[in-house]
């Protein structure tokens, strides 16, 4: 039995298979519509979510399975003090697979150690968000045809943004990737990540100005400032509108630079950018369903050759 805690849990070869499956699902949705008949997915969300929870539910329903779960810790027995370890023991009796989001780093990992069903980390604090990374990689691979030879800018809250941390980990395994980290001083990328890049001899730079670097990027990954991770509201208010991607800045970018964003967006991308064909953040959402369908099939070891 396999869990998914980090994008690195899959080899790059396994990721290729997963993305091939996701692309086949995209083209032949009907073929997979009974692949999970009789199976149940539990979504245990201790933190708010729109995309991740609903895309997991949509994915399981599209596979013919059923869903159960909670979307708020206060509506579960966590509010009475039940531990994640005990909760997953219950969930293992109710469902075949579980997607868990938790504000504490490592909570899904703790759950996995006590679980008798596959557990998927659907975001743990500021740590990792592997299924968002699978979504990002599938989007890039589908729209650009490759996962190597890119200069990628990551802009905004690089300190608390778990999607950024997961994506850097994942992309660091592909050839000729250059990272450009664009953030205010207070929201810089954590040192453990730059240490990892140095160790692997992967090129990166850290800058404050987006205008200074946007012209050399192949991909721009925008992120929101994570209000929920700040201890101090004043700091959040000071930093929340530090970057706003608008038409003027898009005019400085390459004609084929893709703009990605894990969403939700707050103010960091002006709505006028939505109509630019390089803005692919809403396409990303659709890829998120296909890749979660592929992931559920893979972790449940469903034989897709005979569908
Ligand atoms: N991208 C993402 O994780 O969105 P949600 O918080 O809405 O799930």
What is the structure about, briefly put?
This protein is of the alpha/beta class. Helices cover 37% and strands 15% of the residues.
Strand content: 5-15%
Q: How many helical elements? A: 11
Distance between the termini: 22 Å
What compounds sit in this structure?
phosphoric acid mono(formamide)ester
Strand adjacency order, main sheet: 7-6-5-8-9
Helix content: 25-40%
- Globally, the shape reads globular
Give the integer mean of the pLDDT values.
95
Report the C-alpha radius of gyration, rounded.
19 Å
Computed structural class: alpha/beta
Biggest sheet overview: 5 strands, parallel
Task: List the uncertain runs.
Answer: none
Tally of DSSP β-strands: 9
H/E topology pattern: HEHEHEHEHEHEHEHEHHEH
Characterise this structure.
The protein is α/β, with parallel strands linked by helices and 307 residues long. It contains 11 helices and 9 strands. It has helices at 12-27, 51-62, 84-94, 107-114, 130-144, 162-171, 191-199, 210-213, 233-239, 247-250, 281-299; strands at residues 40-45, 66-70, 97-102, 119-124, 150-155, 177-182, 204-207, 219-222, 258-260. It has a 5-stranded parallel β-sheet. A 4-stranded parallel β-sheet has the order 2-1-3-4, sandwiched between helices. The model has no long low-confidence stretch (mean pLDDT 95). The chain binds phosphoric acid mono(formamide)ester.
């Amino acid at each position: 039995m396999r869990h998914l805690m980090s994008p690195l849990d899959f080899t790059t070869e396994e990721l290729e298979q997963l993305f091939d499956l996701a692309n086949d699902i995209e083209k032949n949705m009907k073929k997979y519509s009974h692949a999970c008949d009789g199976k149940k997915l539990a979504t245990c969300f201790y933190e708010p979510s729109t995309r991740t929870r609903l895309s997991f539910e949509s994915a399981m329903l599209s596979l013919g399975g059923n869903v159960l779960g909670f979307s708020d810790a206060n509506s579960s027995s966590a509010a009475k003090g039940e531990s994640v370890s005990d909760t997953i023991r219950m969930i293992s009796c109710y469902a075949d697979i579980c997607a868990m989001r938790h504000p504490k780093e490592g909570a899904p990992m703790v759950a996995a150690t006590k679980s008798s069903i596959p557990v998927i980390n659907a975001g743990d604090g500021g740590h990792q968000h592997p299924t968002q990374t699978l979504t990002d990689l599938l989007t890039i691979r589908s729209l650009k045809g490759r996962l190597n030879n890119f200069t990628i800018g990551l802009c905004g809250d690089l300190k608390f943004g778990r999607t950024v941390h997961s994506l850097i980990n994942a992309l660091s395994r592909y050839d000729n990737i250059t990272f450009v980290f664009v953030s205010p001083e207070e929201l810089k990328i954590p040192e453990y990540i730059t240490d990892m890049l140095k160790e692997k001899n992967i090129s990166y730079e850290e800058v404050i100005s987006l205008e200074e670097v946007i012209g050399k990027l192949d991909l721009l990954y925008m992120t929101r400032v994570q209000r929920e991770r700040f201890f101090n509201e004043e700091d959040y208010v000071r930093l929340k509108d530090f970057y706003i991607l608008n038409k003027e800045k898009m005019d400085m970018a390459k004609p084929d630079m893709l703009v990605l964003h894990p969403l939700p967006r707050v103010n960091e991308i002006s709505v006028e950018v939505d109509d630019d064909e390089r803005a692919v953040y809403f396409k990303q959402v659709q890829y998120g369903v296909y890749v979660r369908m592929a992931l559920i099939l893979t972790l449940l070891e469903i034989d897709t050759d005979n569908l």
